[in-house]
Amino acid sequence: MATTQPSVRSLPGTQADSVRKTGSSATNRFWSQVALYGLAILTAIAFSLPFFWTVSSSLKTAAEIRQIPPTFWPEEIRWANYPDVFRLAPFARFIWNTVIITSLAMIGQIISAAAVAFGFTRFRFPGRETLFFLVLSTMMLPWQVTIVPQFLLFRYLHWLNTFLPLIVPSFFGGGAFFIFLLRQFFMTIPRDLDEAAKLDGASSVRVFWSIILPLSGPAIATVAIFSFLQHWNEFIGPLIFLNTEDKYTLSIGLRYFLSNPFESDEPREAILMAASLIVAAPSLLLFFVAQKYFVRGIVTTGLKG
Amino acid sequence: MNLSISYSLNRSGKDGVYRMASGVSSRRSWLGSRLQRQEALEGYLWISPWLIGFLVFSLGPIIASFYLSLTKYKIGGTPEWLGLANYQTAFFDDPLFWPSIWRTTYFSLASVLLGVLLSLLAAMLLNQNLRGKTIFRALYYLPSLTPVVALAILWQWLLSPQQGLINYLLSMVGIPGPGWLTDQSWAIPSIILITLWSTVGGGRMIIFLAGLQGVPKELQEAAEMDGANGWQRFRNVTIPLISPVILFNVILGVIGAFSTFSVAYLATSPPGGPNYATWFYMLHLYSNAFNFFQMGYASALAWVFFVFIFILSYLQIKLSDRWVYYEFS
């Protein structure tokens, strides 16, 4: 197995040459493979250890979590930390709020980004390129620049401490990233299909709904996944726009624990870890189920952007 | 006339639409024919959600924040015209302004340089046709999925000076661990560490990996035949070919780093760290806007940031002419 990548060569003991198959080069190749796998595994450990530590900590008792030196895996498992998350805070409420906001915002983002992308790929109009350039440039616009007037606008509309500021903007374009991603995909759908439908008298709404959307399954799935992650994990919006406990989302609700007074037999850190895991679990699961859509989505925006 | 065109269009088939339409446009102004007018109108209708959203949630607020930045505005009152006084306050009187900029710059330089470099190295490692490559890729990617609040809570625990795993591991090899997030001089390095853990294997690495896979094998082999060693091939073949991807990652990385808010806000207590150690620019903006409700001053801070990011991105794109290589230009 000859590697053509230069980084292998720069590792010690890798003068292996795929052309010369002498004994020593085979040995060198073996060691370079060992070094490579060693490096890959070490990196994997560095990335995964904190996760392992979270899981392990989340199951510890009050005594064990404060123990020095710490145990790698709890000697006595305290499952109660997970029910405690729900007992100590209205966590079910936080989950429900987050589900509502995430699902409505996702619907808005998918539909409106698809419609806008359809407009940019299937119609010619003056200023189309300029407007699309504007779409892309909003990707580089930091949220901080617009947050104050947005806050004042939502305040004026009496939308503060409601879910509306977190949902409604999603229905207006759905974000440059998704418009771009869908546009790239729509451009690969042959125009013959929609032209044929148009000749049969189909309106553009019909072309969009019964031709473009059904053919865009993978792209829509990618948008749906990233849209889910964005809203499920959103922190700044809820922090600024929501201010009573009954409206909190999971990300704001997690912070609630930090200030929660714990009883002495309740392992504070363990319960915090359990709560964090509950919040992170859907995203992690989603990744395992739909890994290829993640990669596709990232690559589309990164390479063609 | 128009009627007959659309009639013949319907008969001439799909390609005819474009041939006819472009024929018409050469004779008339762009919006000459009714068909084109209609197509344009429909196009605008389809993109109208974005157009409205852009005006209401982006362009409008940008303009509004510029106006506000020239006023003194406390929520509930009326804006009081100040001229450039807010900017003057920021540059000359606000004791937290410049320190927060230097802090943010220190953090951004370190986290972008290290982050881009490590992501590239990780991508190169994954590009070696390792067995179980998808598993490695998944493991590297997972940290980037951690919600930011969980990230902050998790790392506060890992970096806890007495009970944290990191200091325990360090003590096993005989190194006394620092106070990390609770120590004024270690707070920013801690935030850099957290940021690296959660971003190195993320989207940036995936983009690099795709870029590396796009480097033609023949070019590598040709360079090898010409006697180029590993470093030379990396330097003169791989780097130029993936330079557009590097530029993309650097520009977005810089914007992201300078806008850092959540991790610094959440991982240190009080938010912003011991003695303002992690009081980044965005924390300064946030606290002026939403703790002190100084909307005018916060808008001025936002505009300073906006102009700064604009200039920075512009310079990066300009300077990129010297090192970014585009195959087809």
Element layout with pairings:
The complex is a heterodimer of chains A (305) and B (329).
Chain A: H1 6-10, H2 23-58, H3 62-65, H4 81-88, H5 91-122, H6 128-137, H7 144-156, H8 164-167, H9 176-186, H10 191-199, H11 204-215, H12 217-233, H13 236-241, H14 250-258, H15 268-289, H16 291-304
Helix pairs in contact in A: 2-15, 4-15, 5-9, 5-12, 9-12, 10-11, 12-15, 12-16, 14-15
Chain B: H1 2-12, H2 14-27, H3 34-69, E1 71-72, E2 80-81, H4 85-93, H5 97-126, H6 133-141, H7 148-158, H8 165-172, H9 187-199, H10 203-213, H11 217-225, H12 230-258, H13 262-267, H14 281-291, H15 295-319
Antiparallel strand pairs in B: 1-2
Reported by name, the CATH topology of the largest domain in chain A is MetI-like fold
Proportion of residues in β-strands of chain B: under 5%
**Strand line-up across the major sheet of chain B:** 1-2
Q: Return the CATH class of the largest domain in chain A.
A: Mainly Alpha
- Major β-sheet of chain A, in short? none
Helix proportion range of chain A: 55-70%
Q: Any key phrases for this structure?
A:
heterodimer, A: 305 residues, mainly alpha, MetI-like fold, 2 domains, 70% helix, globular, disordered N terminus, B: 329 residues, two-stranded antiparallel sheet, 15 helices
